[in-house]
Amino acid sequence: MNNRIEKIAQQSLQNREISLEDALYLSQVKKDEVYDLFYWANKIRLKYFGRSIKACSIVSAKQGKCTEDCNFCSQSSHYLTKIEEYNLIEENKVVNAAMCAENSGAHSLGIVTSGYTINNEYEFENICNTIKTISRDSRIHPHGSFGVLTKEMAISLAKSGLKRINHNLETSERFFHNICTTHTYADRLNTIHVSKQAGLEICCGAIFGIGEETEDRIHLAFTLKKLDVDSVPLNFLHPISGTPQENSVGLTPMETLKIISLFRFILPDKEIKIAGGRGKNLRSLQSWMFYAGANSTMIGNYLTTSGNPAEEDLLMIKDLGLELEIS
Ligand code: SF4
Questions:
Q1: Which residue range forms the structural domain that includes residue 123?
Q2: 68 lines ligand 1 (CB under 6 A)
Q3: Could you give the count of Cα atoms lying within 13 Å of 202 in the half-sphere of its Cβ?
């Protein structure tokens, strides 16, 4: 057993912040020591979450035609992708998705719309009404991702019953301009601040395999720690044909698992959710994500790519002796 990894893990087990230098060390471990890293990440997960695993589902309520140029995204109008585009779907379709998610064992449903923000008043009101209906008629926790928000929008969403907002930082501040030029890191940070002030829980994470360096991953993890977010979704690039990232090679399963462990060490008591690109990057090691430190995952389809059938994921959780957290 590697003594240094154990020593760093003891700090995370006591919820004491690890140093940048230690984070760098963890992200560079190789060969057999990688298994020590997973061993301790698993111990940290067990300490804060026991056997409990959260599963969430999402519905893509408005898709494509986005004005922004995030270079990994199939929904950007800057790139020629084969994505199906549509305007905001009717309330009953989102409510049905909530019922299906509840029946499939999901804890929450994320309502996701493409675009920089929701700048159409009618659409925003429609979304608020849908959230009210889901809160009233189902057990599922309504979460949402609506792009950049003003303080007023965040307050209205919270009043409608939205529990949690998702707004990813995607990468480190210093690398962000390499993946998006149409808005700034500060825009994203501001949405997180106003959502927090409105009393919403914060789900904020990243995408990996987009050309970032180890240091970017570490800086991002410490930024999220400072922001004291509630949930950290980790996405791994699934290259989309037509985007600037179409030829990116992606991560190996071991690199992917090491990123999960690194985030568990830095954010010991936060929900770490494995989201898009799980199948593509983890391949046959998908069940290892929990041993590497994750305590949450998305089930069903991702935003614009397909996932495993929900039943298969639920069976995986059961086969591992873990327990699904029911809402
Ligand atoms: S990630 Fe969001 S903001 Fe960026 S292009 Fe895609 S839908 Fe638009």
A1: 51-324
A2: yes
A3: 25
